[in-house]
Amino acid sequence: MNEIKIAVLGSEGVGKSALNVRFLTRRFIGEYASSSECIYRKRVSVDGRQVNLELYDPCSQACEGKSTLNDQIHWADGFIVVYDISNRSSFFTAKAIVHLISELHLGTAKRDADSLIFLVGNKQDLGHMRQVQREEGQCVAAEFHCQFYELSAAEHYHEVALIFSKMVRNTSLGSKAKERRRRPSGSKSMAKLINNVFGKRRKSV
Ligand SMILES: Nc1nc2c(ncn2[C@@H]2O[C@H](COP(=O)(O)OP(=O)(O)O)[C@@H](O)[C@H]2O)c(=O)[nH]1
Ligand SMILES: [Mg+2]
Asked: Which PANTHER family has this protein been placed in (predicted)?
């Protein structure tokens, strides 16, 4: 497999774009365009082998031609499901998404979940506003046999990079020949990403 597709999913405002941008540019910017869904492309090296990584960052708001969660799940090989530790409802959404992925994507192959679904509690720097305990995240991860991480896109570049690298490696190792179904629309180049990040929406951090 020389193409890897990873979807970063979760409710609006949990930091999906922040995580993608942090991984791709090493920067935490603060505010990101969220009016369209997009796919970021990057060539990465896995164990000395070049692979084409596609990272799907969904549009948080209603937008034209928006793909459904089912489409997104069928499209991707690996999933980073994000919630905000200071927002309990985002945790429930993340749990529902993990459940759906287990049902739709992995079917009965539960053992795959461990390497192909990561549950991530973001905004760890907001510990004083915490609504979801670390143990609750661990519990859901155990229930669905997925890996669990807590971090802060704002403060932890290395943890963010580690999670993405692990997922890239796991998906590239998984030799599932999965039939590609509908692909989320609105692919963006790195140039577009840079515009989003450094363009007019930029806020100082
Ligand atoms: N304090 C804190 N804020 C964050 C973190 N990650 C993202 N944010 C903020 O949360 C808001 C939503 O982030 P965004 O990436 O647009 O969320 P998305 O809708 O899931 O793509 C923005 O104001 C970000 O600056 C984090 O780790 N810590
Ligand atoms: Mg976003």
From this structure: RAS-LIKE FAMILY MEMBER 11 (PTHR45704)
| Residue 33 CB–ligand 1 contact under 6 Å | no
Q: Which atom of ligand 1 is nearest to the CA of 60?
A: 19
Element (H, E) at 3: strand 3-9
At residue 194, does pLDDT exceed 60?
no
Tens digits of residue pLDDT in 55-68: 999 987 766 666 78
- C-beta of residue 35 within 8 angstroms of C-beta of residue 46: no
* C-alpha 165 – ligand 2 centre gap (Å): 20
Note whether residue 139 is domain-resident.
yes
Q: Exposed, middle or buried, 102 (CB in 10 Å: 0-12/13-18/19+)?
A: buried
- Report if residue 181 sits inside a domain: yes
Q: What is the DSSP track for 156-186?
A: -HHHHHHHHHHHHHHHHH----PPP-PPPS-
Q: What is the pTM of this model?
A: 0.85
Q: What spacing in Å lies between the alpha carbon of 13 and ligand 1's midpoint? A: 6
- Going by alpha carbons, the residue nearest to atom 8 of ligand 1 is 15
Is residue 186, in this structure, part of any structural domain at all? yes
Check whether 174 has a pLDDT greater than 80: no
pLDDT bracket for residue 178 (50, 70, 90): very low
